[in-house]
Amino acid sequence: MSERPTEGMNTMHMGMDEILQQLSSLKDNSESFSKEKDADPIWQADVTALEAAISILSALQDEGINDAEETRDIIEDYRRQAKQIERMHTKYEVKAWPIKKDSVYHCPECNHRVPPKHTYCHWCGKKLGGW
Ligand SMILES: [Zn+2]
Questions:
Q1: What are the two backbone dihedrals, phi and then psi, of residue 32, each rounded to the nearest 5 degrees?
Q2: pTM over 0.70
Q3: What spacing in Å lies between the alpha carbon of 109 and ligand 1's midpoint?
Q4: What would the pLDDT profile of 60-93 be if each residue is shown by its tens digit?
Q5: Taking the domains of the chain in order of start, what are their residue ranges?
Q6: Burial of 16 (C-beta count, 10 Å sphere; 0-12/13-18/19+)
Q7: Distance between CA atoms of 5 and 28, rounded to whole angstroms?
Q8: Residue 111 Cα, ligand 1 centroid: separation in angstroms?
Q9: Which terminus, N or C, of the chain has the lesser number of Cβ atoms within 10 Å?
């Protein structure tokens, strides 16, 4: 197996435009080889892979993303926000039963006392139900 360059090493000084230009040139070369008589099918496979790579990188570039680090950052932000939305949904939109302790109701989220029949906890905003 051939040694792979460390990530970022070869792309560090190459902008997205240059990378796409280079891949496009590689694709054109592979395409011309693939059209030769009795061409090895590997050239067509290269064309297909390069087209897919160009398409992915173009989509990232369209969103203003220029390298692998920015790609990971955006995805991490997205996942963090998705978790936050899920937590907010669970807290404010999903009912939970108040907990009765010593004949007084308590919020299942923050444990403060809540009056019977209230739809939200006045302390933390948790949606209540099951009355
Ligand atoms: Zn509460």
A1: -70, -35
A2: no
A3: 5
A4: 999 999 999 999 999 999 999 999 999 999 999 9
A5: 16-86
A6: middle
A7: 24
A8: 6
A9: N
Determine the Cα–Cα distance for residues 42 and 29; give it in Å rounded to an integer.
13
Cα–chain-centroid distance for residue 119? 34
> H or E stretch including 101?
strand 99-101
Q: How far is the CA of 91 from the centre of ligand 1 (A)?
A: 9
pLDDT band at 6 (very low <50, low <70, confident <90, very high): low
Task: Mark out the alpha helices in 35-67 (DSSP H runs).
Answer: 42-62
Centroid of ligand 1 to alpha carbon of 79 (angstroms) = 26
Give the C-alpha distances (Å, rounded to integers) separating 30 from 19, 23, 58, 98, 116: 16, 10, 20, 67, 73
What is the per-residue pLDDT across 9-28, written as a single tens digit (0 to 9) for each? 554 578 999 999 999 999 99
Residue 34 identity: S
